[in-house]
Amino acid sequence: MTAFHAARWNEPLIQELSEAGARGIIPPATDPAIMQAAGDVLSRLPKALRRAAPPALPEVTQHRVVRHFTRLAQMCMGFDVTTDMMGTCTMKYSPKVHDHVARDHRLADVHPLQDPETIQGVLEILYRFNRMMCAIAGMDEFTFQPGSGAQGIYTNACIIRAYHAARGDQARRNEIITTAFSHPADAATPAVAGFKVITLMPGAMGYADVGALQAALSERTAGMMLTNPEDTGQYNPHIREFVDLVHGAGGLCAYDQANGNPLLGIARAGDAGFDLCQFNLHKTFSAPHGAVGQGCAAVGVREPLRRFLPKPVVTFDGERYGLDVDRPDAIDKIRAFLGNVQTVLKAYAWVMSLGADGLRAVAETAVLNNNYMLNRIRAIPGVAIPWPANTYPKLEQVRYSWEPLFQETGVASAEIEDRLVDFGVQHYMTSHVPMLVPQPFTLEPGESLTIAEMDAMVAALRAIAEEARTTPERVRSAPHNASIGRIDGEIPHDPATWAFTYRAYLRKRSAWSGPRSPRATRKHGGY
Amino acid sequence: MMAKGAGFTHPYVPNAAPEPRRRLLAAIGVGDIDELYASVPADLRLQGVLDLPPPLPGEHDLRRHLEGILARNRSCRDLLNVRGAGCWQHFVPALCDEIVGRGEFLTAYAGGPYSDHGKNQALFEFQSLLGELVGMEVVSPPTYDAGAAACSAIAMACRVTGRRGILVPALMHPDRLSQLRGFTQPAATITTVRQDPDTGLLDLADLRAKLSSAIGAVYIENPGYLGSVETGAPEAAALAHAAGALVVVAVDPISLGVIAAPADYGADIVTGDLQPLGIRMYGGGGCAGFIASRDEERFVHEYPTMLITPSPAAGGGIGFGWSTQERTSYDKRHEATDYYGTTQWLWGIGAAVYLSLMGPKGMVELGQGIMARARYATKGIAAIPGVRVPGQNGVVFKEFVVDLAGTGKTVAAINRRLLGVGIMGGHDLGTEFPELAARMMVCFTEVHDRADIDRFTAALAEAVR
């Protein structure tokens, strides 16, 4: 048993706190002289465009709004609150000073279209960080426009498309090769960009072998987009050969460095021959994950692809920073304006606080912590380590398997995931699709945690495995000590009961007690 | 040999200190950290150290360095700003900053129903509150920005109708149009519909002429990019529907206390940017999009985003789950028609706080106050000799176009003079649309009081002389 219990406020929905006539805040006053001169502005709206009744928003006094959202915040397990080892997410400490500086009005209240002479500070950060990222990745120019890893990978796909189009080869080169253990975005975003995507399956070592790549290459190959290490924490040592083979076939190589944390100062995308890459600044570079964003991808390219980077690119003439918008070969805009510049500031601050030795210490420590976890979790009865043929140490994460425990007890990894929350830690990530490893769980400890915190995670996993043998219902009915009890798993997926707004919830709530329809099947229109 | 990082002790990397490092290495039976990198071939290993500036490990030193750089910015609190065009200066209640700054939210990520119950409830409330504004029952959590939301929504409409043609306003936000061109390049064809450069309104005859059985989506911005309320929107929607197309309406959500919910004049899918709802501009980093629609399976199945939904919990109360994940690129991989990932959820929490504070009265007062300021400003500016406000007789929300052709001066020259007196003038439309040279788009919101507007008007009169 554990002593932990999460905050459990049973906090109503904000609409349920509404009291007629209450005000949360008063908007800025409008000068009577303005009102008089402007006249009845609402009457200028044609009837069809004039709002007939005020929106049905709740009416809540201010302190109750404060309490409401403060209570909701307390029912979260962010990194500031507890251990979070969610695999592929690179959870790490986000230094507070960065957030405080980012709230400075000289960043927070800057308009993106201000004249460059008034935002020299913003441009300087973007420019300086660009050069730092070039050093870290072995690339020649970066853009920070994409708002997430997936959008960064999409940007890579768009640049590959533009490269072949500029050579008049777009129609023929319409295939992108990725691997099954690369992030799903490495398959999805090139598909969105119009490519046919070929997914290489892992061999006995847990990564694709050279033969699989050779079989996929042809004159249709536009490029290769993958992670390395993959989402399994395993590094494919044949990566240079992969790159050379793709280049030999006329394709480009894009390195998704979503799993780049173990390689900072150790190995660079450019040195492995990659033409372009992307890093998640909200993961590897410590910018806070923001409850699913504000993210930022740093997309880097080698010189020949520089002309394809989206507008604008920050320039420096030795005195002044500027914005280059005269870029006829640039791909289309990815995100509005300059991207999440506040996220770039935080990443810049992090690198400035650590320097070259510090980044290397981050990488090495992330790998060391992970192998320590591996060593201890390997000893938990019921855990298997996939691909026994692969005896290399793992890098920053491990995809484990509860398959032996599942065979013994029938308790599934997803059930253990839910039980983990009762131990006061964030739940784990099982696996991305495809779920090739049975009963998977993926842990990435990162470089921030102490040994005691890692030991506590191991102890929790060990205790739950033991419960699976002795009191499996305890696991299956979890969580018990979380902010909320176990939810009905079908209601979210049934069109008769799903509800994506309060108004839909009010309409459909009565159906919760009725029978469930079979899970909705996708009715895809298609172009 | 000890690796380079050995012995490095930094507050952010506890186990890089010599003692814990030694303990961990001993526990796993490895003598040197290099052995853990056995899978990385020697010829790919970096020789030497990264070429980076010397670090500032002390927090005070780092902060001084960062603030020294930011001091080279002049913010919209230092300047009087009337520039909008896709990111707008609005009033941000202190509580919005307070809540989005809370570490529990700021450092949460992909937690599920039990570990991040509060995050999921906050985002469900965001979906709900926005649903009231736009009049729809389905609202996504935040997407990247209004442009990305438009891309996804328009592509959804094309998939639902099985048609590849897209009609968009000719004078739509150029960045959004660029995003859309890139996104739909493999799958669809974009045709622009004329807009009157003076009123900014859609040319309905041109729309009618371009509608056909090939058109799947008609995209309307209301207010339009040039600031006018698109009074022809209901008729445009009716025309689109008659041709079998779906209607995607991009709104400014802060206008919806006074302007009709788009669902009430024919929108099938609604998009827009949340940034006006209590999110600071952050040089554009404040932008965050959303998608909304009716609760119909044909739409829901095409959403690329997570969708948060309540579900009854054991022991009472409701929890929140993520519905039908098989729709998303996480599950579809190479079969994906759109993608999703980390987006801008933190700003969704900020917008939820904002709408909870404003309530129905606040949104009505805001909308009215903004329209009154813009109207007041049009009158003063139009009275300047040589200056025209071509949309003056239409309905403007917060932005409008100022025609400076009669002054013989360029927008850039006028803006230089304005900046000299501490004013960030309007957006130079000629940089985006050659036919709109010598036109400046200005933006007035609830942050501008009468003195601000009068000061701008007087400074503009001086600058054009």
Care to describe what's here?
The complex is a heterodimer of chains A (527) and B (465). Chain A is built from 15 helices and 11 strands. With 527 residues, chain A is an alpha/beta fold. Among the domains of chain A are: 251 residues, Type I PLP-dependent aspartate aminotransferase-like (Major domain) (Aspartate Aminotransferase, domain 2, 3-Layer(aba) Sandwich); 37 residues, no CATH class. In chain A, the strands form 3 sheets. Chain A has a 7-stranded mixed beta sheet, with helices on both faces. In chain A, strands 8-9 form a two-stranded antiparallel sheet. In chain A, α7 links the parallel β2 and β3. In chain A, α5 packs parallel to α10, α6 packs across α7 and α10 packs across α13. The longest helix of chain A has 37 residues. Chain B is α/β, with parallel strands linked by helices and 465 residues long. Helix content of chain B is 36%, strand content 13%. Chain B is globular, with a radius of gyration of 26 Å. At the A-B interface, α1, α2, α3, α4 and α5 of A face α1, α2, α3, α4 and α5 of B.
Put the structure in a nutshell.
The complex is a heterodimer of chains A (527) and B (465). Helix content of chain A is 34%, strand content 10%. With 527 residues, chain A is of the alpha/beta class.
